Amino acid sequence: MSTYKQNSAALTTHDFYYDLPEELIAQTPIEPRDASRMLVYDRAADRIEHRHFYDLPQFLKKGDLLVLNNTRVIPARIFGRVEGHESALETLLLKRVDYTHWETIMKPARKAKLGSVIRYADCLSATVTEIGEYGARTVEFKFDGVFEDVLDKVGNMPLPPYIKEKLQDKERYQTVYSKIDGSAAAPTAGLHFTPRLMKELEDMGVEFATVLLHIGLGTFRPVKEENILDHKMHTEYYEIEQSAADKINAAVREGRRVICVGTTSVRTLETVADENGFVKAQKGETDIFIYPGYRFKCVGGLITNFHLPESTLIMLVSAFAGREKTLEIYDEAVREGYRFFSFGDSSFFI
Length: 350
Description:
Layout: E1 37-42, E2 47-52, E3 65-69, E4 71-73, E5 77-82, E6 89-96, E7 101-107, E8 117-121, E9 124-131, E10 136-143, H1 147-154, E11 180-183, H2 195-203, E12 207-213, H3 217-220, E13 236-240, H4 242-253, E14 258-261, H5 263-272, E15 282-286, E16 301-305, H6 312-321, H7 323-335, E17 346-349
Parallel strand pairs: 1-17, 3-12, 3-14, 4-11, 14-16
Antiparallel strand pairs: 1-2, 5-6, 5-8, 6-7, 7-10, 8-9, 9-10, 12-13, 13-15, 16-17
Helix pairs in contact: 6-7
């Protein structure tokens, strides 16, 4: 686990607010994936360019290392009924504790009391074994057969609540390089990549390394505290294999750019990196919270989507590019009509 807290000048949650017209919240993904727009910000030159994601090769060079999160989204949203109640209960699976226990969020949580039994289907039920904050519940599942097979039958893709349109193709909420099941949300910065674009980058000498962070409550829980230092990040599981560590360390040692695709890749690397930017192959739980004042140890570039106002994600971007500059960039993206959030457009901070 890695915790970052700094007693910098007090920052409030509202310091990361910006106005976003509702019509700019993307409801469906762009086709093809790399046709999305891309706002490029060169920090050294203090220059903004408006491009498309298929232009990415123009901003990369031989020896650059792109770090990808290869987590895969599970059908983590399931609907059931608490015994003794007629109305439906929504459950979002966040993190597996052991073979039968999961950390979840439930709506409406008030119906899911300690010991409550929730029935989802003939083959799946759960008992609430622990109650946490903000609707969090730990449950013990009972099921017939293999849990993953049962979940495939009864579960739904956990699209964010601001997406109202039905997703026609479930694979559009997965990256093309997704591999390991376990996330309750997609690492959306990677949704813009296509196999063709990745092959083009490989052919020009750009390298790829994959890490794993299963996205759960730590990434998307809203900040409710006025002072951001009072916000508590929930832990999320990560892994860095030896092959990825070797690639990252070689790039750091040789002074090549390490560019993270997504905030989850950033959090993974910065959790394990030492003061010189080197990483070790390891696995564990991270609750790292990155906000302005943080000194990045390993990450030299960031590809990411446009994030919700007052979220930990825009705070991380603000740590990388500066709070005022980040808000300035977001305001320009609004003026230029960029599409925001999970199925929205991309930004590249170099």
